[in-house]
């Protein structure tokens, strides 16, 4: 059959503007799309072209990112501010246009400028082409579950204040399910997400972690879930009673309403693997109500893992495997052209003497780095424009392939003497030949804090070869690589005090951001970028920017 015949053009308009909402006994003005929170749900089929006209009626500089979309030859539509575009200024517009090729499942979109993604986000669901089906039984209904965070304050102000003082931002006032905190929070008895189900039916929950700075555990009382996809990549079916989901990730599960007629809470709480820093202990919940359940029933509550239950998180994160031979499965790259060993973690900066600093130590500001390089966005011209128009001085291509010194990365007790404590700033990238293969060892450090960083790569899915705790050892750990059915993702939660190894093929020209998906770590430098050169043919060459690309 001619499958391209079914491809459609799906068009949306995003009006981004102020919206006043009441949550947690408090009226708050937020930035939202089309007066909805979470924002509009986009549904496309694989092969479709998506066109979104974004009108910035907000007071802030704005961009929108389509998290997980490959953007094949459409890097101009990827969205990270100053990486692929200058921001859409207030009272300006930009049209994002791209084709969705060879991926299906659950992704999402969010603002990619300042901290606006706290409230500017929504689901992006990619269905199989007409005539194609899921590699699992067709669910009775599909239900997006967007996990987020809520602040009783203006989030952009909160982030600016934290950056000015050189400390981390205040933690959120609540986590949310589809925008609702749930009845454990004050004034929220009726601010709870409710899902009605029919006994015996199977539902596809498309779970998205849109939280700014939290990894989460998600659980439903008395029900197992069967994972069928993560980050829009099909997995072998994996039955679990708890989902661990890092900021940026998605997990698709089948849920069968196979319990006695009644009501059951779904709940989420932070998996805060960081040691010695403030963490969020609150629980958001929603309720699943079976058709026919008496209105008076008290729902059953699931027992969530403890906030620091790393074994449970690691079991979930490491037991998933790809569905080999599934519709968009890609073979594991065997030959590696670029080997990189990259430390990721917090760092420090010295405060200018005339400022009030509230960094972790006297006279310091919080910073973050990859291989001791703290990423700074350019001003004036985006990196992608610099790439396309061959303009020098915007970025350099000397991102190091290893840290400047080797030491015990996971031992926090020697922090004060660490050579990586103060990281220089720069806009360092790695230049890659078209179609070359990259292997990255991502090694968490224990500098300043011990954390589990969710690392997100734009433009590509990567294979997760192996993950572990402690320092990565090339002599022994390479033998643990899964060369057969490793999970594919666009965001990896690198284990706390540990490492992950990923591989990807740089088969798409453009500039591709890679960063920690904790919003608190992005503006302080936990980022780098890949510059992928054009291929040999017009069909592998980045076309010129659209005429309405915002200028700085
Ligand atoms: Cu979901 Cu660069 O982000």
Automatic annotation (TrEMBL):
Binds 4 Cu cations per monomer. GO terms for cellular component: apoplast. It is found in: Secreted, Extracellular space, Apoplast. Belongs to the multicopper oxidase family. Lignin degradation and detoxification of lignin-derived products. GO terms for molecular function: copper ion binding; hydroquinone:oxygen oxidoreductase activity. It catalyses: 4 hydroquinone + O2 = 4 benzosemiquinone + 2 H2O. Residues 16-129, 142-293, 398-535 form the Plastocyanin-like domain. Its EC number is 1.10.3.2. This is Laccase. InterPro entries: Cu-oxidase-like_N, Cu-oxidase_2nd, Cu-oxidase_C, Cu-oxidase_fam, Cu_oxidase_CS, Cu_oxidase_Cu_BS, Cupredoxin, CuRO_1_LCC. Its cofactor is Cu cation. Keywords: Apoplast, Copper, Glycoprotein, Lignin degradation, Metal-binding, Oxidoreductase, Repeat, Secreted, Signal. One of its GO terms (biological process) is lignin catabolic process.
């Amino acid at each position: 059959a001619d499958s391209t015949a079914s491809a459609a053009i799906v068009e949306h308009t995003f009006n981004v503007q102020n919206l006043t909402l009441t949550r947690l006994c408090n009226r708050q003005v937020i930035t939202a799309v089309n007066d909805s929170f979470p924002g509009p749900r986009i549904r496309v089929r694989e092969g479709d072209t998506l066109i979104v006209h974004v009108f910035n009626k907000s007071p802030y500089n704005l961009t929108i990112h389509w998290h997980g979309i490959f953007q094949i030859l459409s890097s101009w539509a990827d969205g990270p501010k100053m990486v692929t575009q200058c921001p859409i200024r207030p009272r300006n517009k930009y049209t994002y246009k791209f084709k969705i090729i060879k991926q299906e499942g659950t992704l999402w979109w969010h603002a990619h400028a300042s901290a606006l993604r706290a409230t500017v986000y929504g689901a992006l669901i990619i269905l199989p082409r007409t005539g194609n089906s899921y590699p699992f039984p067709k669910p009775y209904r599909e239900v997006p579950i967007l996990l987020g965070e809520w602040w009783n304050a203006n989030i952009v102000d909160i982030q600016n204040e934290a950056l000015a003082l050189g400390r981390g931002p205040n933690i959120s006032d609540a986590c949310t399910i589809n925008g609702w905190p749930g009845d454990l929070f004050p004034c929220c008895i009726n601010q709870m997400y409710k899902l009605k189900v029919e006994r015996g039916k199977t539902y596809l929950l498309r779970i998205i972690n849109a939280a700014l700075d939290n990894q989460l555990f998600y659980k439903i009382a008395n029900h197992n879930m069967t994972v069928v996809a993560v980050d829009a990549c099909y997995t072998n079916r994996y039955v679990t009673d708890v989902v661990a989901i890092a900021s940026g990730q998605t997990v698709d599960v089948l849920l069968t309403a196979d319990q006695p007629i009644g009501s059951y809470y779904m709940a989420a709480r932070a998996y805060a693997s960081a040691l010695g820093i403030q963490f969020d202990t609150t629980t958001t919940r929603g309720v699943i109500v079976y058709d026919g359940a008496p209105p008076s029933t008290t729902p059953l509550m699931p027992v969530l893992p403890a906030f620091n239950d790393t074994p449970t998180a690691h079991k979930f994160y490491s037991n998933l495997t790809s569905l080999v031979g599934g519709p968009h499965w890609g073979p594991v790259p065997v030959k590696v052209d670029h080997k990189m060993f990259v430390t990721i973690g917090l760092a420090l900066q010295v405060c200018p003497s005339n400022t009030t600093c509230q960094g972790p130590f006297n006279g310091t500001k919080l910073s973050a780095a990859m291989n001791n390089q703290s990423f700074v966005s350019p001003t004036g011209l985006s990196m992608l424009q610099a790439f396309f128009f061959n303009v020098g001085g915007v970025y350099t291509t000397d991102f190091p392939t290893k840290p400047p010194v080797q030491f015990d990365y996971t031992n926090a007790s020697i922090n004060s003497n660490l050579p990586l404590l103060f990281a220089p700033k720069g806009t360092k990238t790695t230049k890659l030949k078209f179609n070359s293969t990259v292997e990255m060892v991502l090694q968490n450090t224990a500098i300043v804090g011990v954390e589990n960083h969710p690392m997100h790569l734009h433009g590509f899915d990567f294979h997760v070869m192996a993950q572990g705790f402690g320092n990565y050892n090339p002599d022994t750990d390479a033998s643990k690589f899964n060369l057969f059915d490793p999970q594919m993702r666009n965001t990896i939660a690198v284990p706390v005090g540990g490492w992950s190894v990923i591989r990807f093929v740089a088969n798409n020209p453009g500039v591709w951001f890679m960063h920690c998906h904790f919003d608190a770590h992005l503006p302080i430098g936990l980022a780098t970028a890949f510059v992928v050169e054009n291929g040999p043919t017009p069909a592998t060459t980045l076309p010129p920017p659209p005429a309405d690309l915002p200028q700085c």
